[in-house]
Design goal:
The strands form five sheets. The protein has a five-stranded mixed beta sheet with strand order 2-3-8-4-7. Strands 1-6-5 form a three-stranded antiparallel beta sheet, with no helix packed on it. It has 16 helices and 14 strands. The protein is α+β, with helices and mostly antiparallel strands.
Length: 441
């Protein structure tokens, strides 16, 4: 067990038995700001503490301007502990946590000026205890104690913070989860942060780590990584097993990011047998296909001669042959931009010499057409590619690029219209289905 002891003034501790369950106890404690113990666990607080956020800055102003009223203006810190007790002889209050609880390391508490987020251990298992609400309050006080000028340190002795300590529920995981959800509502905790807290993203994280992807995906609110897990879910949606049949194109992968996240959450809650987890073995392949298309599409565009050449080509021309004149990409070439932070974070080597990448409205229907290569293993229920999607693209990229550019021309070069047009998603998917049928003859 891990213990944290701190002094409390006489009369500033109240213990109340839970009126429903006698095994639970609630303690209400006024703790001197100067006595606040360092490194309390935050394993049950779903939100990382960002000291540069508006919430944290407001707490700090209250601490600096009115420390004697801090316990009245701030709603305090709620803690779930294995046990707690007060020694009225020594005026010492003790919090007890399991050894598995993860402390905040002092060197991760940075100044409020740089706005850094705590990078808490994301591999802590469910059932860990600690601060469930008030993590920003705790972080601001500790940062003030460590970094404020010496003349301001006296303010800590002028004020108090209110602790609410709950014991006797360490085995009630559902209740702990409900507490985390209910207590973190003043600044809305994003559902994805709660999903990370509940472990719903763990298998995605494992798949990417095993494949050696850079650890650049963020799974919770305020995390510093540049790639949101919701974007990974969008890419997975483009290959979702419920959309493998003809005319069931997953247009929502591009047009409705929030719906993709909601569907992922609903499947995780219901344990749907044919859903996102089916894609577990090919998540790295899906991301690699995305990166390959983003990195190479500008080359394919130039090779087929660009919009003007494709627009004037005869219908009977071999679609896999290069054009006689190379296309150029410039301001007039709509649907292109420089590589994004996501591109460079996920594929630093692949994107090193890339000057232009296609808009996502072009990319999503293009890569989703490759779901025609997917099969579901009847024994394991897992998805696999019947042939390497990168090898397929190496042989057929010019053909699919021409298909996409013709559609873009018809939609006045508008990537959003292309990305939202279900008929086009169905059409380019049919092109790949036809190739698969030919190869199986």
């Amino acid at each position: 067990m891990k213990q944290f002891k701190f002094n409390v003034q006489p009369g500033q501790v109240r213990r109340m038995a839970d009126p429903i369950n006698s095994d639970r106890d609630l303690f209400y404690v006024h703790v001197s700001l100067a006595e606040l113990p360092p490194d309390l666990p935050l394993d049950v607080n779903p939100r990382s503490q960002k000291l540069g956020s508006p919430v944290a800055k407001k707490i700090r102003r209250s601490l600096e301007k009115a420390p004697d009223r801090f316990h009245l203006l701030n709603r305090g810190i709620t803690i779930i502990a294995e046990n707690a007790y007060f020694d009225n002889k020594t005026n010492e209050f003790t919090l007890v946590f399991p050894e598995g609880s993860s402390p905040i390391l002092s060197d991760l508490i940075e100044s409020a000026d740089n706005g850094a987020a705590f990078d808490l251990d994301k591999d802590v298992g469910l059932g860990s205890l600690g601060i469930v609400d008030g993590g920003h309050t705790y972080a601001v006080i500790r940062d003030f104690a460590e970094h404020a000028p010496e003349e301001d340190q006296a303010k800590l002795k002028q004020g108090f913070v209110r602790f609410e300590v709950i014991t006797g529920i360490s085995s009630e995981q559902e209740l702990i989860t409900d507490l985390a959800r209910a207590r973190n509502t003043s600044t809305q905790v994003k559902e994805q942060t709660l999903d990370e807290f509940l472990g719903k993203f763990k298998w995605i994280k494992t798949a990417l780590d095993t494949a050696g992807f850079p650890r650049v995906v963020k799974y919770e609110e305020n995390a510093p990584e540049p790639v949101d897990v919701r974007f990974v879910i969008q890419l997975m949606t483009a290959f979702h097993p419920l959309h493998l049949e003809r005319e069931r194109s997953p247009v929502i992968a591009y047009s409705q990011a929030a719906t993709c996240a909601s569907n992922f959450r609903r499947e995780a809650d219901s344990g749907a047998p044919l859903g996102y987890p089916t894609l577990r073995p090919i998540i790295p392949d899906i991301l690699n296909v995305y990166g390959y298309v983003r990195a190479n599409f500008a080359t394919w565009y130039r090779t087929v001669g660009g919009y003007s050449t494709v627009k004037s080509e005869r219908p009977d021309q071999d679609p896999n042959l290069p054009a006689k004149t190379r296309g150029r990409i410039g301001d007039e070439s709509k649907g292109f931009s420089s590589p994004s932070k996501i591109d460079r974070a996920l594929f630093p080597d692949l994107m090193e010499d890339v000057d232009y990448v296609p808009d996502l409205g072009f990319v999503f229907p293009f890569i989703s057409s490759l779901r025609a290569l997917l099969t579901i293993d009847g024994a394991t229920g897992e998805a696999k590619f019947s042939q390497d999607p990168i090898q397929y693209l190496q042989a057929n990229s010019l053909k699919l690029t021409r298909v996409l550019l013709r559609e873009a021309i018809g939609e006045n070069y508008d990537p959003q219209k292309v990305g939202k047009k279900r008929n086009f998603w169905d059409y380019i998917h049919e092109k790949v289905l036809y190739d698969v049928a030919l190869s199986n003859r």
